[in-house]
Amino acid sequence: MPLALLALAIGAFGIGTTEFVIMGLLPEVAGDFGVSIPTAGFLVTGYALGVMFGAPLMTVLGTKVSRKRMLMLLMGLFIVGNLLSAVAPSFSVMLIGRVVASLAHGAFFGIGSVVAADLVAPDKKAGAIAMMFTGLTVANVVGVPLGTLIGQSAGWRVTFAVVAGLGVLGLAGIARLVPDMPKAEGVRLRHELAAFKNVQVLLAMAMTVLGFGGVFAAITYIAPMMTHVGGFAEGSVTWLLVLFGLGMVGGNLVGGRYADRALMPMLYVSLGALAVVLALFTLTAHNQVAAAVTITLIGALGFATVPPLQKRVLDQAHGAPTLASAVNIGAFNLGNALSAWLGGLVIAAGLGYTAPNWVGAVLAAAALVLAVLSAALERRSETRGRAVTGVSAEHAQPAAAVTH
């Protein structure tokens, strides 16, 4: 794998750290600014919304520059946002800093996926995308726990300053290692927008929303579920999330490897198994060992869908994939927000802390149905294409005979 993928992975590590580390630092941030925990939660919501809207916005704004330069500009924006958060004199300024940093998120992964795929041979594209996303998954294992520890011991502002430093490292790596890769000649914004007329692109994005949404339906409420149902101490939740992160790392690499060999079968297996494991989590949540194993599997199966889904979008939006790739990153965050809301509804309805697992199972199963539908439509399209080609050849044969 090219060294350029390491630079992309470092940038992804920084972005993944800043996205999730705030969850472990909400009490400290709320205390410093004198706001409630729910109010501090807007730092999470604001970031997610920034990713959703920033992904297409920043990608469109970057259509006039090369992909390498756009990646560098996005890392610069990421650095500015985290520095603003680190020195914020008020909660509103901190929120602005979070939104500024989030604007880089979707476009970085979207454009980065295109760059990563272009760096390698066609049969290694999903593996290259997975290598970049490894930075995001490792952030959940190393960056988030370490950032939380730093924030709790040295202050949350130090954490965001360190994350800004990671951004500087990622920027330097991109500038040094990523080759200058201009946009394909003749590709304009209208070509990028035309990709959304392809039903296969839309189906892949819907699978992204539902599939990874299934993961977050359960993981969003992991703390109350494990402490109230599983009997874990509050301090154990951090290590359970590390197990979840380790599962993400493994699933991401496996998904990338096998998606290059058999993309749709990989999606069938991962989405089907994810639906089953999420349903079983309503039972295994009551046993600490079984719960720990299940959480790891959820991370692995959930992230095993990421490289194949991202590659599916790139394949179907062939020729003008950048905007579609970035929007698919926003689809992950849409799924996270949707599933967290649905999970909260079933808990509020009195169905218990394990009820979100059933929500997640239904969402993952729905994604599997869409995957089967997508493959069926693709086969039908290919059959029609062969039939048309055969008819054309048959009609052309007599003409060729006359010529002779």
Which short descriptors sum up this protein?
MFS_trans_sf, globular, mainly alpha, transmembrane transporter activity, transmembrane helix, Growth Hormone, Chain: A, 404 residues, 0% strand, MFS_Efflux_Transporters, MFS, disordered C terminus
Brief summary of the model shown:
The protein is mainly alpha-helical. 84% of the residues lie in helices and 0% in strands.
Outline the secondary-structure elements.
Blueprint: H1 4-33, H2 37-40, H3 42-61, H4 67-87, H5 91-118, H6 125-154, H7 156-177, H8 189-194, H9 199-219, H10 222-229, H11 237-259, H12 263-284, H13 288-303, H14 306-316, H15 322-348, H16 355-403
InterPro entries: MFS (IPR011701), MFS_dom (IPR020846), MFS_Efflux_Transporters (IPR050189), MFS_trans_sf (IPR036259)
Keywords: Cell membrane, Membrane, Transmembrane, Transmembrane helix
Transmembrane segments: 42-61, 73-96, 102-121, 128-150, 156-178, 199-224, 236-254, 266-283, 289-309, 330-352, 358-377
Can you put this structure into words, describing what you see?
Helix content is 84%, strand content 0%. The N and C termini lie far apart (53 Å). It has helices at residues 4-33, 37-40, 42-61, 67-87, 91-118, 125-154, 156-177, 189-194, 199-219, 222-229, 237-259, 263-284, 288-303, 306-316, 322-348, 355-403. The chain has 16 helices and no strands. The longest helix is centred in the last third of the chain and has 49 residues, at 355-403. It has 2 domains: 1-183, Growth Hormone, Chain: A (Up-down Bundle); 185-383, Up-down Bundle (Growth Hormone, Chain: A). The model is unreliable at 399-404 (pLDDT under 50). The chain is globular, with a radius of gyration of 22 Å. It has 404 residues and is mainly α. It is found in: Cell membrane.
